[in-house]
Amino acid sequence: MGGLRSAQEGSLKILDQEICGASKQQLTEIRRNIGYIFQAHNLMSFLTAKQNVRMSLELHEHYLKQDMDQLATEILEEVGLGQRVDYYAEELSGGQKQRVAIARALVSRPKIVLADEPTAALDKKSGRDVVEMMQKLAKEQGCTILLVTHDNRILDIADRIVYMEDGRLVERVDAANLVR
Predict the structure, then answer these.
(1) DSSP for the chain?
(2) Cα–Cα distance between 26 and 19 in angstroms, integer?
(3) Bridge-partner residues for 5, per DSSP?
(4) Domains present along the chain, CATH in parentheses
(5) In a structure prediction context, what are the per-residue pLDDT tens digits for the chain, which is 180 residues long?
(6) CA 169 – CA 162 distance, rounded (Å)
(7) pTM for this one?
(8) By the 8 A CB rule, do 27 and 40 touch?
(9) CA–CA separation, 82 vs 76, rounded Å?
C-alpha cells in the first residue's frame, strides 16, 4: 500500500493513483505523499534525531530551499524532544525513538501516514502517549493515519476500526467490543 513493494495483481489505488503496474517514477511521487512509521522505527543510528527527521525533508524538492534544520527542530519540539534534537538514536529511550519516527513521518506534511505497530516496543503509557501525539499532529495537518495494531489498548482513539482475521476483512465487527 505504501509503494515500497510492487503489487503483484489486482488493483490498488492510493491518493487516486493506481499502484499496480505503476512506474518507478510514479511510485516515487506517490511515496512523497506518504509518511511511514515502522514497527522498529528504522532510525539511522549514525544520525542525530534532527538529522533523521531532516533526511525525510531532503526527499522533497520544495523543502530544499527552506531551513530544514529549523523545520526538523520545530517538529521534534512538537513531539516533546526539543532537548534531544542532537542526541543519537542509541542515546534515546524506546518511546523517544518512536517520537523521532513520528516527527520524521509527519515533517513533510504527507497526506497519509502508514503506521505499522507503532506501540509494539512501548509500555502502556508510552504507547498511548505516542498514538495520541500522532493523532493530534495528523489532525492539525489534515493527514489520514492508517494504523495496523494488535494493541487493543489504543483502539478507542480510532475514528474507524477495520478488523482482519486470517488476512481477510471481517464484515461485521462491533468496534465497542474490540475496544473492551
Answers:
(1) --SSS---SS--EETTEE-TT--HHHHHHHHTTEEEE-TT----TTSBHHHHHHHHHTT-GGGTTS-HHHHHHHHHHHTT-TT-TT-BGGGS-HHHHHHHHHHHHHTT--SEEEEESTTTTS-HHHHHHHHHHHHHHHHHHT-EEEEE---GGGGGG-S----EETTEE-S---HHHHH-
(2) 8
(3) none
(4) 13-151 (3.40.50.300)
(5) 888 877 778 888 888 988 888 888 888 888 889 999 988 888 999 999 999 999 999 988 889 889 999 999 999 998 889 999 999 999 999 889 988 999 999 999 999 999 998 887 777 887 788 888 888 888 888 899 999 888 887 888 888 888 888 878 886 666 556 556
(6) 7
(7) 0.84
(8) no
(9) 6
